[in-house]
Design brief:
By secondary structure, the protein is mainly alpha-helical. It contains 6 helices and 2 strands. The protein is 53% helix and 7% strand.
Length: 149
């Protein structure tokens, strides 16, 4: 079902990784999409309840799409990249994808250092990638059979 991991020195998946600019563009696309939907919900339902519902929908968006078999949000799909399990290959699942969503906050806290970490990391992993054990890879090397499942 999934391509076998390229030659491995250990159980970790080896191969090409998504670049910084691809990941940044995907994040911007997703932020705009989730942000616009959140604003619409807040306008319709009011600020307090709307913000809560928008937050829950944001968590569900990333959890479902990044945890799906494709490992792609709308932004990642547009940029031709996907989230991939670093240890076993394949999808990371919804639970780990939700954990990845919250771990992004840790990556952002110290002046986005956790996001920039991928620039000098050998596996091009951010802190949130490391925390949940994933990598972001190009679809050209790790094809997606269907989206979002």
């Amino acid at each position: 079902m999934y391509p076998p991991p390229p030659e491995t020195a250990s159980s970790a998946v080896r191969g090409p990784r998504a670049g910084f600019w691809q990941r940044l563009a995907a994040a911007i696309i997703d932020a705009i999409l989730v942000g616009v939907v959140g604003i619409i919900i807040e306008v319709i339902l009011g600020r307090s309840i709307g913000a809560i519902i928008a937050f829950v929908l944001g968590v569900a968006y990333y959890g479902w799409l990044e945890g799906s078999n494709s490992g792609q949000t709308v932004g990642k799909r547009a940029m031709g990249i996907r989230v991939y399990d670093f240890r076993q290959g394949g999808p990371i699942g919804t639970g780990r994808a939700i954990g990845r969503y919250f771990a992004r906050w840790l990556s952002a806290l110290p002046c986005f250092l956790g996001y920039l970490w991928m620039l000098w990391d050998g596996e091009k992993q951010t802190w949130h990638d490391k925390l949940v054990g994933d990598v972001v890879v190009p679809v050209s090397a790790y094809p997606v059979e269907s989206w979002p499942n």
